[in-house]
Input
Amino acid sequence: MRNTIVSRRSVVRAGLGVSLAASMPVRSLLAAPMTADFPLRAEPGRAALAGKAYPQTTVWSYNGQVPGPEIRVRQGERLKFTVENRLDEETTVHSHGLRLPNAMDGVPHLTQKPIAPGETFTYEFDVPDAGTYWYHPHTNSAEQIGRGLSGPMIVEEREPIEVDRDITWVLDDWRLLSNAAISDDFGNRMDAGMAGRLGNTVTINGQMPDSFEVRAGERIRLRLINTANARIFGLDFGAHRPRIIAYDGQPVEPHGPANGLVVLGPAMRIDLIIDMANESGQSFTVVDRFYPSQTYRLIDIVYSDKPALRARPPVFSIRLLANTMPEPDIARAKRHEVAFGGGMMGGGMMGGGMMGRMMGGGKMWTINGVAFEGPVMEPLLTLEQGRSHVLTLRNETAWYHPIHLHGHSFRVISRNGRQTPYREWQDTVLIAPRENADIAFVADNPGDWMFHCHIAEHLAAGMMGIVRVS
Ligand code: C2O
Ligand code: CU
Output
């Protein structure tokens, strides 16, 4: 699989691409807010994932689209959508990152009965916080997400910051065969025990990206959403100086990315502000450098010939207003230890023939020594409602894990015992091999919440548990 991304892309490069007109005012791109009941059909569909030189790919889609339609509301509004299951298997829809009532969380058997083929289920809840979120199934997740079921969910600020364009890039990664069909080797043990299902075709908004047209001088808010099963992205914007204004939808003190790389594990989102400070007619390559042996060109930023929109970067503020999470009291917080274990040992990339440690029951990963044997288990932790908690998350494995807690956002307060510079709010924290991270939050949302690695193959192979808030 190693070089297919690069070679395939170079073959199909010409004439493809996500290119958006540069001068459209931002308001016209914002959908009318959805307060009515929005229909979301999970159904088979077809998508030109690999470009015109290849046959269309049969996918599982929402409303025939990959990614699914953007669900967009304003902060404080009520969101309502009805899922109709036109697949041949059960499904549910989880609104990832939203702090919603437990019964609307979309976890089969734990928070609702799965939606059987032919049936519908209506999700309805208030949306307290602005930000960039996404939705996806929580049943047979590795296959359902891997075949295309996911979509962006945007909650607009009551008082948005001023930008020229507000753009969403849904980054996805597909494992395609040479005829562009999705490889059906879901659930294999190599993927499960190592890095997860890495694909060979990266798309932005469901297309092989080629170029992104911009106008000199414009300020863009770029919302990145990683919907891949397993791929971690590390984007290098070259001559541009992106500033991170939100992680997982939650405002953060604006800052440049560490080491110049914008890193997103599966399920994570980052909002960037990029001032297009170069000159008309120039073009720049965005490179994904996360896996050092597999860097590739993601997309080119191409400056149109139009005259610059403004002579120097605008002065208006890029700082987002805080969301509504209560501030954890770290000094008085109750402390908990959570250790992540398992997986094949020995590091290295997909090598073939690698022997590793295997566990019983087909499960390969654990949290505090227990592999999840769903659909419902005794909670791994019970957190007293209304009180502050600090969880020390220890990655005792040789692999990265993006760890996600449902129903809450938490501050990442330290890594390996060192304070994080921004104490960022997140709902999914990427933890490197052998790294520890401390997260802090007020357990203010009652219910049984999933807590798991978001590499879909890891969660299927046991790296999942339940956190009870009561
Ligand atoms: Cu995207 Cu259990 O979550
Ligand atoms: Cu994992």
Remarks:
- Residues 1-30, 347-359 have pLDDT under 50 and may be disordered.
- The chain has two domains: 20-303, 330-469.
- The pocket of CU-O-CU linkage (ligand 1) is lined by residues 94, 96, 136, 138, 267, 404, 406, 450, 452, 454 (CB under 6 Å).
- The helical segments are 4-12, 141-146, 189-193, 456-460.
